Amino acid sequence: MIPAIGLASGIGGRKLGAGEGPLFVRKHFNEDLLWETMVMPEIGRIGDPCEAIASLNQKFAEAAYSMAQREPFFLSVGGDHSCAIGMWSGVAAAKKQEGNLGLIWIDAHMDSHTPQTSETGNIHGMPLAALLGYGDERLKHILYPHPKLQPQNIALIGIRSFESGELELLQRLNVRVYFMEEVNERGLDAVMREAHALVTSDTVGYGISFDLDSIDPAHIAAVGTPVPGGLDPEEVLNAFSLFEERPPLAFELVEYNPSLDDGFRTLRFIRRLISKIKLAAVLPARS
What we know:
Blueprint: E1 2-7, H1 21-28, E2 33-39, H2 49-70, E3 74-78, H3 84-95, E4 101-106, H4 127-131, H5 137-140, E5 154-159, H6 164-173, E6 176-179, H7 180-186, H8 188-199, E7 205-211, H9 233-239, E8 250-254, H10 265-286
Parallel strand pairs: 1-2, 1-3, 3-8, 4-5, 4-7, 5-6, 7-8
Helix pairs in contact: 2-3, 7-8
């Protein structure tokens, strides 16, 4: 069984239904996942969204820190993508004395806004910026007041929806972004190989943050912010065999909204994804 933690919150996004995703996954994957922590907002006590998200991510970061110290690999299931702040703050803190953390960010969006550049103010569009040390102090100082990730250790894959403010930040920092045009031109396998080499160079290890909206909504529709023209689910599953060569330290799955999952098509993909993760990441790491 794969050790797992979850953050069941949709406060950072447009639709609160994403907060039900981790609870739904826990209910349907008890045979595959060994749940240790499920962080949840207090009912009726959200208040200031940023304050609430910072508090939740602090608790989640502590859980991720503990898991990263004890386990060679674990799975995180989040609601909206603001949970990435706590998740990767915890993993980075656990590995801080050994070296830098690499991260592959698979998503339709850059999620690299700050409060000054965001048009909506939705915090699920800000986690990567916070991890790089930009944005609200409460978000970027989770566990310790320094950036959790270095720009040269990050690769974004599948990007096709973004605004000028976040693009400018990533370009200024020289973060490697594989837009969908490049993925379509070169193929996902080639892109994933190159990204894998980037995030494993001069790092102690790497993680994968996987937003379900990276997949084309023609195949996966149970997400809050679908964007046409995304990744093919079969190519994604096939490309993940690459991780057998050097497994990740952790895998993060986010933005599943079960209320939108007609016929449980997305849930079936998640089942296949978890099976692939179990084979590619967990078994080789523990053999």
